Amino acid sequence: MSTPIRERLRIRPGFALAACAAAGMLLTGLPALQGDADAAPGPGRRCDEKWLGRTYDTPVAGSGIKGKNQPYSVNPDKERGSYPVDNPAHAFDGLKAPSAAQQKLAGDTTADIEKWKAKYEQSKNTKYRVLEYYARYGNHLRTSGKPTRDFSRYMDRWIIGNEVNRVKGDSFERKIVKDFKLVGPDWICQKEVPVRGKDGKPVVDKDGKPVVRRYDAYNARTREFVEFKSNGKHIARQFGYDRLVLRDPQWRDHSLRLITGEKTTSNTVKQFDALNRQLANERGKPGSTPVTIREQRNTPAPRWRPNQYTRYDKVFNPDPRRAGTLGPINDAAWRSGDTPDQARQVQRQYQGANTRGGLGRGPGGVDFTTLELSYVGNPVKGKALDYSFKADYVKDEEANPGWGGKAKLQLASDAFFTWLALSPDKFWVNLNPDQPDRIMDNAFAKTDAGRTLLEADLAMKHDFAAAINPDKHPSARTFWDNAPRRAGLPCFPETRLWIEPKTAKVREQDGGIYILDAPLKVSAEWMDVEWHPPGARVCDLTDPEKRTSERLLRQHVMPEVEKRVNTSPGYADLRRVYASRVAAEWTRQQDAKKPTDFRSIINSNDASRWPLRGENANWSKHETYERYMKSGREGVEWFKLEYGGQVYNQGVGGVDFSKSPKRNITKTQFTVEKPRLDTTTKTSVHAETSYRDTETAYLGGNGSGPEQGDGNPTPSPTPTPTGTGGPTPTGSGEPTPAPTGTGGPDPTPTGTGGPSSTPTDSGGPTPAPTGTGGTDPTLPPTSGPKDPGGGLADTGSSAPVGLIAGIAAALAAAGAALTWWVRRRRNGGTG
């Protein structure tokens, strides 16, 4: 008799992708063999015993599948969390590629792989695990039609990622059994059911063996089959079997419950909805729910113990003597491509290995252009600093995956340290045609934060030129029609423009600070400028006329510019460094109260650890200033104005954070406006997660890790550096692993602030924190001082400078909006 083929609990990577491609496939026409029509389910194992390690004699209160009376339901926010997934291979993500000698020692056959694997299992010595991975790599290069030759990518996709895939399903199943209390003698896991066709004969596979459908859980009393999927989609092959089982007379009174751990795909919902209606009608019970989906969102949190082969990044690491930081944001940034083309290539490679992120997305699932720091924890001396970022998910990760994660993460970290390292009197930038020698402080000009501010200033002036174009914006026409005039002609406003914060919202809680909203506004005021481009028409306006021009400008032109600053991708870096500014100022406050690991950095005026990087390494403030002046001489926006029978060609050629109005956020308001954000943030430090039902990702990290040479256990025998990493062949033929280094570039600080022509004062005392406060009512209360208000305290300034009230002289940047007029009459004559 043929041996039944068992449905595996989890299918192997690669096979899942092929199976999913066959969505909607019906299996009723498969060849069949004669079999026992009364076959009963195969033996399984009690769920409580299998997953919880104990047995319950009777069912417990609240036991059962949630949402069984709804075709599709989602668990509420308060039930969402994370579940641990053991991923010991992650500890080797910094392992370097093998040398030729190391690869020769490791070998490249299946026998070599099994040999080193057995040695590791016996000794637990990491040198054998390294050799196993090298043997697997060699085997991959030898046998794969399209091998991954980048060893780091190979480790991430084929070793680390596949390990998560293998164990994530079991971990999710354990959590659901616990959460839904599937205990007692009625709940059996891994129950097997033979699959029969319409004719009652067993369905067979391509080898002629009877197919057996294995369900993750089964309850004979409630007549429920249950399938757990840690991701959000069904497998077409299994779904075809389910259709046959549920229409089999023996199981015609049974139901199927699909439990997903992520947002369920629309195709899965569609397929289950159709089957639900079909079965309900066939069974003569319209409106019943024999097939349901319960979306039980939870985030897998990989865990591992770092060793000498672990990759650390230098972002948010205040002490260069320490290893660095770890976390899902570090991993996601490292996995992303550096360019759009590279990102698409990487995405295809990961898809081929079926190695996807914690939420079922590949390395291109995060839109890194929207990445902003959203939380930093309490900077306690000698302890790890928690941090969390938020970002949108891309709409189509296959066609247009996210890219540039490393650069964006580095910029946010560099900005954070720049705000700490440089004293506030250096936080200014200035594009002013009358002051070519006062563009920005020289130290600030050597940082990416300074570069970001000056480039944003120039971009804002160009956007102002577009916003005042009446051909593009009707409100601009209103400005020109009502502007002060000379000789019947409207006068262009000689205006200082700069960006500054609107009222921002923060919440200090749980020993850290949540950056909830930090919008920016574009301000304008009249400013007399001596330099004018050739051909410019200059109006000598009275003070009332200047005020009128300002008012009209603010009312009809600046809203469009402000919208761009707050939403345009071109200002994403500016918004990114401002979020880091908020976090850095709070860190300053904590250090002022009690020394932290950041004490030696704050106001040191040494930003050499965080220089200009990458393609901007040779950036010059003078080059940006020259582009500014060129736009003034040549114009960046041309349009025609017609007044009094004459036609005029008009050409039209910045950032201040010294004031940050604050809106205190109370614990109640925080809970109402951002429910469960604290829980989401805590989860994000260890695992990628999403906030509620939004398409917003939260990814974090922590650490600065153990000091080098202290607290980092070294396996025996002692590693010997080789320059290439990995094990080194010795005279005895035994490898000696070598450390791989910490990995990751150094973070560079950035800065903000500054006036148009001279630096402002340092801003007064730093605000004091308001306490922790704020807990999930479903969880035990946490210790700590009571919350008095929720926001950052005022600094004593007479102005409500708020949020980061102590922020001194700003991201500044005045600079006139350059313009000139070329007047000519309608008949073509010159004026």
Automatic annotation (TrEMBL):
Transmembrane segment boundaries: 801-822
Positions with biased composition (Basic and acidic residues): 311-322
Stretch list, region Disordered: 282-340, 676-796
Alphabetical UniProt keywords: Membrane, Signal, Transmembrane, Transmembrane helix
Leader sequence segment: 1-18
Coiled coil location: none
Skewed-composition ranges (Low complexity): 755-765
Protein name as it appears in the record: LPXTG cell wall anchor domain-containing protein
Source lineage: Bacteria, Bacillati, Actinomycetota, Actinomycetes, Kitasatosporales
